[in-house]
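SAMPLE LOG
Freezer: B-3
Tube label: C17
Construct: single chain, 354 aa
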Amino acid sequence: MTCRYWSPRVDALSPYVPGEQPQQGERLIKLNTNENPYPPSPEVARMLAAYDVENLRLYPDPDARALRKSIADYYDVGVENIFVGNGSDEVLAHSFMAFFKQKEPILFPDVTYSFYTVYCALYDIHYKALAVHDDFTIGLEAYSQSNGGIIIPNPNAPTGIGLSLNQVEQLLKKNRDSVVIIDEAYVDFGGVSVIPLIKKYDNLLVIQTFSKSRNLAGMRVGFSVGNQQLIDGLERVKNSFNSYPLDTLAQAVAMSAIKDDVYFKKVCAMIIASRDLLAKRLESFGFEVLPSESNFLFVTHPEHKAESLYAGLKSKGMLVRHFAKSRINAYLRITVGKDEENAALCDALELILK
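STRUCTURE (predicted):
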């Protein structure tokens, strides 16, 4: 589709395609968009029950100071080290504009979050997609070349494979003259956060989200942690685009969620345990399952096409994610659900495979 009123830039865009959403009235087991299968913290429910809707007639705090203080306290950094936005996708978009409009191309893996290439097209940013190894691990030795910035998800998506703290630090040591962004959307499901390294490396920016491990995909809250100068750069972009990206309710909900550390850790542990059980069950069916430090599994079957498995599951009322892209079109990405959802998935797969 095209339109004569569009600018040439918009006409050339290939927008990001999110995971399929069930239509109204459809009853599907949804294991395709990496949502948390459990409800938000009870603290969130209590806050919402007592919330004074009178607050909603006023603009929210444009600086989200109380929320930033809550996040800063949790990660033992200063408020000046925290930036918040409307989901981590917005934080990422502002980061691309703030740091990656450089003469040299930016670097990221060829198998990774597909929004990165969309941002590059939108902002006219040159990039090099560096090939991951055959086992889908990231070869960091390739990132020693001249660049205008680096972005790597850790754990990577859609593979779920993570990097160690030492690996990220070696990457930082070799790239002191450009901004290195570590996208930690899934880190709480078994990965290791590199947030402590921001005190040592002023070119490191870490981006996280409340959508996955904090059970708040519907609220759209993301944040970044980094040196104050990096945060100031993000603020400049934000205030040139939208001074009020986070609404009042989203800020209050996020603060309630981050206060309940017991519930947060309990849910993460439950998902990790369910993921490991699901991986073993899938392996018993003959699937090859990549090692995952996320709330999803990336799997392939040597005797069955991923596209056919995806269609078969959908016909049985289950959504998983299939990417029709080179290198990964033989794989399915399966979100870890509740144990009963995972069991239903396995039962359906058993029938399809037979």
